[in-house]
Amino acid sequence: MTAIATLGSHCALQVLKGAKDEGLKTILVCEKNREKLYRRFSFIDTMILVDSFLEILDPKCTRILEKNNAVLIPHGTLIAQMNTKQIESITTPVFGNKWILKWESDRHLKEKLMHRAGLDVPESLRTPDEIKKLTIAKRHGAAGGKGYFLTTSKNDYIKKRNHLIRAGLIKGDRDLYLQEYVMGVLAYLQYFYSPLNETLEFFGADKRHESDIEGLARIPAQQQFPDYISSFNVIGNSPMVLRESLLSEVYDMGERFVEASKKLVKPGMNGPFCIEGTYDQNGKFWAFEFSARIVAGTNIYMDGSPYSTLLYDVPMSMGRRMACEVKLAIKQKKLDKITT
Ligand code: ATP
Fold it and tell me: Which of 100, 114, 179, 186 has its CA 20 to 30 A from that of 273?
């Protein structure tokens, strides 16, 4: 029997519940300090207890995964805690495309893929000298918005950058990526692409609640503090339904992204992914980011989303959708088409 395995964090509960709903075995690689939490859930069949998630590379761990024919579901914690080389060296079959995760972690590669997909991407700045209008400084990798800040001039940038260096969050300019700030309604578009039936499914949209930029927006400008360095640390997500007239463009963007990925990083963008950006005052979508794997925003739709309801007659979470794909691939003897 095939098992679905994942790391105990991010969206592990959704992933393993979905796998269990589809009758698959479930394995959680769990840090010892979180064991108590995950023992509460009966749909987790096996726990591999570790001191650190890096142990997923150790033979002790890989042997158990191999014995259970496990497919590993990668998520944000895997990206945040392992470097590209470590991720690429995972021997357990990884759902989706592990090679594209490098493109997610490197902001310059990321930009290249988004441009190739014909997405409108806010302009990036090569050096702090180019800061002329409202600019966001972001760290590389999936830092979750922590330590990101807004700035409008080089002097202000240097002050804030030095603050982050003192706080131990960055070493220098090279750790920051500068991008034009786009004002509007933020939307995180969740997709699933199946290489087995070559179709793209739009699964849902969510909003992120980020601290403390969200709190700052509730304070009138006169009461705000000019030297304050805000952060975009993600605290949680809430559901969002888009105007129906925007949906056609949403599908087009997803399809272009899938096509571009097939060309730039084989076998392409298989499985779940997310295009993240801002709708401006003209309803134009500016994509500033993508995630090439399941995003935590899908956790709000554990029971299905308004859009998955249109596609499936059973409550379909993203976790369950992946389990369905694994089952179909096994039936068609094409597991190698959906894993890397
Ligand atoms: P994650 O990996 O969790 O998706 P990240 O660390 O890769 O996050 P981004 O998603 O690029 O970072 O940015 C974090 C937040 O910063 C966004 O959710 C958004 O609120 C804000 N943001 C980023 N880029 C822009 C931009 N160009 N214009 C407006 N807001 C932006």
Answer: 179
Checking phi first, is residue 267 left (phi over 0); if not, alpha (psi -120 to 50) or beta?
Answer: alpha
HSE on the CB side for 184, CA within 13 Å? Answer: 20
Q: 73-95: per-residue pLDDT in tens?
A: 999 999 989 999 999 999 999 99
Task: Please name the amino acid found at residue 72.
Answer: L
Q: In what order do the strands lie in the sheet with 70-72?
A: 46-50, 25-31, 3-7, 70-72
pLDDT band at 246 (very low <50, low <70, confident <90, very high): very high
What is the CATH architecture of 3-94?
Answer: 3-Layer(aba) Sandwich (3.40)
Task: Please tell me if the CB atom of residue 181 comes closer than 6 angstroms to any atom of ligand 1.
Answer: yes
Q: Tell me the CATH number for domain 104-120+184-220+235-314.
A: 3.30.470.20
Residues 112-152 have pLDDT tens digits of 999 999 999 999 999 999 999 999 999 886 667 888 999 99
Whether the pLDDT of residue 226 is over 90: the answer is no
CA–CA separation, 86 vs 88, rounded Å?
5
Q: Which of 79, 169, 288 to mutate to test the pocket of ligand 1 (most atoms within 8 A of CB)?
A: 288
Residue with tokens 């591999």, as numbered in its chain: 48
Distance 149 CA to ligand 1 centre (A): 10
Give distance in angstroms: CA of 139 to centre of ligand 1.
10
The pLDDT value recorded for residue 171 is 93
CA of 289 to the centre of ligand 1 (A): 7
